[in-house]
Write a structure and sequence with these properties.
Number of strands: 0
InterPro entries: Homeodomain-like_sf, HTH-type_Tx_Regulator, HTH_TetR
Number of domains: 2
Organism: Blautia hominis
Radius of gyration: 19 Å
DNA-binding region: 25-44
Number of helices: 10
CATH topology of the largest domain: Tetracycline Repressor, domain 2
CATH class of the largest domain: Mainly Alpha
Oligomer: single chain
Largest sheet: none
Shape: elongated
Keywords: DNA-binding
Helix content: 55-70%
Order of helices and strands: HHHHHHHHHH
Domain HTH tetR-type: 2-62
CATH architecture of the largest domain: Orthogonal Bundle
Length: 219
């Protein structure tokens, strides 16, 4: 059943994020799901296949609904790391596109779009952040992506100041960092890696972010 595969993937994702991929064992995943180790192996050949399944579902959320032959092997995930890097590139291009015509874009839209982007790829991004030394190829590309993302966000903030869409900021780079951290915590960390994870509906989390950030900076 795909429901059991989903339960295994969800439990594994949280463990990979909270305690690290290298420290997570199949027995830990089985305990989190409430099944035997043998049951896990009915669905997945091993831990690497579970990880690659999680990453594949980050890239393609509909993948969980495919008819899957079990146990799932790594043959399904050839080139998965390259696919993740490609997604980072496409995501960066999409995020930057309004810089070409900033007059048709608003501060509210920026905050909304940034939250949605972070929420959509939360598991994949957090996994790389917390396991970058075990997955150096992904870590290097993700580091470059984060720098590019911050640069684009800074340019948006600068342009909105020039257009007097937001108030004047004495420390714009620090404020950009603060906005990113607020959004990432509510869109990503609160569900998976905060000290006390909470199942806050994404619509509510987004509404809280929008209300507070826009109230703080919008003229």
């Amino acid at each position: 059943m795909n429901e059991r595969i989903k339960a295994i993937a969800d439990a594994a994702a949280k463990l990979f994020l909270q305690q690290g991929y290298s420290k997570t064992q199949i027995s830990h995943i089985a305990k989190a799901v409430g099944v035997s180790v043998g049951t896990i192996y009915l669905d997945f050949v091993g831990k690497k296949e579970i990880l690659h399944f999680v990453l594949k579902c980050t890239i393609d959320p509909d993948f969980i609904n495919h008819e899957l032959q079990r146990p799932i092997t790594d043959d399904l995930f050839t080139g998965i790391e390259q696919d993740v890097v490609k997604l980072l590139e496409e995501s960066a291009n999409e995020f930057e596109k309004h810089l070409k015509d900033i007059e048709d874009y608003s501060f509210e839209e920026l905050i909304s779009d940034t939250f949605d982007l972070m929420a959509r790829y939360a598991v994949g991004c957090l996994f790389i952040e917390r396991n970058q030394f075990d997955f150096k190829y992904l870590g290097e590309h993700y580091t470059a992506y984060r720098k590019r993302f911050f640069k684009a966000m800074s340019r948006y903030i600068s342009e909105f100041q020039k257009q007097k869409m937001i108030r004047n900021l004495e420390y714009p780079e620090l404020i950009t960092t603060l906005i990113i951290e607020i959004l990432s915590w509510w869109a990503m960390d609160v569900r998976y890696t905060s000290f006390e994870t909470k199942e806050i509906p994404m619509e509510l989390a987004k509404a809280v972010c929008m209300d507070n950030i826009i109230s703080a900076y919008k003229l």
